[in-house]
Amino acid sequence: MKNVVACFLGIALLSFYSSGAQDLGLDISYAQYQNDQDQTYVELYFALNGNTLSYKSAGKAYEGGVEVTVLFKQDSSIEAADRFRILANVEDTASVNDIFIQQERFALVPGNYQLQLELKDIHDSSEHYSISQNIEVHNMGQSNSISDILLLDSYKPADEKNQYAKSGYELIPMVSSGSYYFPDAMTKLSFYVELYNLPPNEPYLLKYYIENSAQEKPLNEYAAFSKKQASEVQPVLAEFDISKLPTGNYNLVVEAVNKNNETLLQKKQFFFRRNEEAKPNYLTDLSETDITGTFVDRIDNFDSIYTYVQYLYPISSEREQDFQKSLLASRDKPKMKRYFYSYWEKIDPYNPEGAWKKYHKEVRITNDLFGTRIQKGYLTSRGRVYLVYGRPDMVEDRKFEPTMPPYQIWQYNQINSEFAINQTNRFFVFAEYELSTNDYEMVHSTALGELYDSRWKYTMARRGNGGTGPDVDSRSDELSQDSYGSRLNNNMIFKSGGSGTNR
């Protein structure tokens, strides 16, 4: 666990990861609730990737783990604290695939706190990391309050001795490294939330649904409601079948509405769904798309609409790209126009023309900045990243690095793009292997779903030297120290910056 960079990802999400050869696979999130004595408490959830630990022999097995110290401070006063270990016991260190979940609970009075965390490898005291964040503990004893929404990996009836059970269930949380992510293989979205102190003896409508995050437009096929009588605590444990929910950014919404249709309380939780099997309607129902009087109706030139469909390629899924290729091959202009309008109506149903103009402006920028002799800028690696994730917050450009090809490191403090999952503190590394071409190829990224190469320095050095550099498969540390005049390991960007359950 080396060179750990720690960052907070969202209001209730923390993540620790490494830019070095080995990751510290520890994700942390938290949620706030109220107990039966009307006290607010904070639950911390830890997910430790057993594949990233160092192990020592412990009898017939191997043991690894992380020691965690938690402090909740107000000014210089420690209001709550604990120290514990998250342990991983395995039989074979060569094939560890388990995630070890641990949960800790802290009772706190409402107010502002500084949450401080100290992490230490139990087998190497020199591997020591710290992080802190200010959090606000809410007063849930007041009327019309709601806990955080806890997205679940799984749940089951709880043992009576389980001190962390809620409403009779053992809840195994999803612990995210940023925004919550539901890949193709996950077909259920399960969640838990608690509503507190709604007006006594008054009925209300409990609603929960999924909405498009950009337009906050509810999806009727992912909605449920029930009539409730107000009580001190209303637990909600529910799930949606999301097997047919297309790729996109969404909010899970829970709300209570009174008989006058007034919203008493509401809570939202963002998540990203990737689902290549769910075909969006605009790939199948183009014959019913009416573009009369729209901005697309005014595009008369065949070459223009052909080029505009090509421009969609960087921000499209694989399924969409396949459809675009077949559409371009057909050279069916009316169908291209209907598809193009449907695509941008999907992005912004209320202003598809505005969404297209905004994107088209960025395409022109990428063509100017990243174009090569043989390729338009929007088709290059840097152009695609720019269009999908937006303008980077910091770029380090290293054109004259000893033993290295020219390379760039891009940093994003926050990724808030309609074309990508929301993320925090992400990096991209690009290298120009063919000099003076302006064609930079992606080497490594910490963004979700992108090319990840923990040995990117070796890869870049070897390819940059025509395959004669360090052996990528070797375990030597030839690049652990910079060559004379090099800043590869001392660059500006990378220097900035319970109950245990085995899942």
User: What is Rg?
Assistant: 26 Å
| Sheet of most strands | 6 strands, antiparallel
- Compute the number of helices: 7
Q: How many beta-strand segments?
A: 25
Mean pLDDT: 84
CATH superfamily of the largest domain: Immunoglobulins
Decide which structural class fits the backbone. Answer: alpha+beta
Neighbour order of strands in the largest sheet = 1-2-3-4-8-25
Q: What is the strand content?
A: 35-45%
Number of domains: 4
Distance between the termini: 21 Å
Question: How would you describe the overall organization of this protein?
Answer:
It is globular, with a radius of gyration of 26 Å. α1 (302-311) packs across α3, α3 (333-347) packs across α4 (352-370) and α4 (352-370) packs antiparallel against α5. The two termini are 21 Å apart. It is an alpha+beta fold and 503 residues long. 16% of the residues lie in helices and 41% in strands. The protein has 7 helices and 25 strands. It folds into 4 domains: 1-141, Immunoglobulin-like; 143-278, Immunoglobulin-like (Sandwich); 281-379, no CATH class; 381-495, no CATH class. The model is unreliable at 1-22, 469-478, 480-487 and 490-503 (pLDDT under 50). A hairpin with a 7-residue loop joins β2 and β3. The strands form 5 sheets. It has a 6-stranded antiparallel β-sheet with strand order 1-2-3-4-8-25, with no helix packed on it. Strands 5, 6, 7, 9 and 10 form a 5-stranded antiparallel β-sheet that branches. Strands 11, 12, 13, 15 and 18 form a 5-stranded antiparallel β-sheet that branches.
